[in-house]
Amino acid sequence: MQDVHFDIPLGRITALHQPGNGLKVLALHGWLDNAASFLPLAEYLPDLNLVALDLPGHGHSLHLPTGTEYSFHAAMSAVLDVADALGWSQFCLLGHSMGAGIASLLAAACPQRIVRLVAIEMLGALTDSPEHTATRMREAMAWQRERAPRTLRVFADIERAVQARLLASRVPGSGLDVALLRLLVARGVRAVPGGVVWRSDPRLTQPSLTRMTPPQVDDLLAAITCPTLGVFATPAQPYLPDPERRRRLGLLANGEAAFLEGGHHLHMQQPAAVAGLIQAFLTR
Questions:
Q1: What mean pLDDT do residues 245-263 have?
Q2: pTM
Q3: First-residue to last-residue Cα distance in the chain
Q4: How far apart are CA 26 and CA 18, in angstroms?
Q5: Phi, psi angle pair for 78, to nearest 5°
Q6: What is the fold, at CATH topology level, of the domain defined by 2-140+209-282?
Q7: Rounded Cα gap, residues 249 and 239, in angstroms
Q8: Residue 110: is it exposed, middle or buried by C-beta count within 10 angstroms (0-12/13-18/19+)?
Q9: Can you say whether residue 155 is alpha, beta or left, with left for phi > 0 and alpha for psi between -120 and 50 degrees?
């Protein structure tokens, strides 16, 4: 895949591009990952015109200005701006985890532009009860205003950073081995005197000011009209238990699901199997 970039109104968004002659697909990675998340999968989907983005604050893409919040809304606008820069009036979306959540909301908000949706390990968004709104906002504001500026940890080399990511997995049960983690880490660090530091914006770990309520997410999922494939790992992750993900799948007007044994990053762990599902779905 080739490194490319797009200068959109928000700033510079970087990506990896596989210029196949097939369907146009924008790929959106998970939280604190980057475009390299899709490298194993792309090898098995060589015909796709695949653009895997570094979402804002991740990989080589811009960090948002101080005082602004990382939100699904900002990410959705950035994705559409990249599609416009590519000249893609219609395209498919492929998302993993947070990226699948962003893709889900975008498919609901812009049905005229999204041809098909593949959502891996998430559908919709994380929710919270209405009665938690004020408490969540207070906690988020206190965290943002009172937290001291974060000093980036310097790793002697990439291998030390890989080991750190291995020991402090961002998602329990991800199951990524060292070779797969190295793909993410290599794109996720930058050189500094004495070694390397994470490229991702430290503010990505800030608590969200708000979350949607369950009825809001249900309304969005019911509004997705394009054919949708949900690909999920077995066993289910705690943040989206199996009964809830099956309930959400049932809200789709034109949805189907596949379940594979594996961890949260099953598209990296089992790229051939996941690519087979995607290929069959996109070319049906």
A1: 96
A2: 0.95
A3: 25
A4: 11
A5: -65, -40
A6: Rossmann fold (3.40.50)
A7: 16
A8: middle
A9: beta
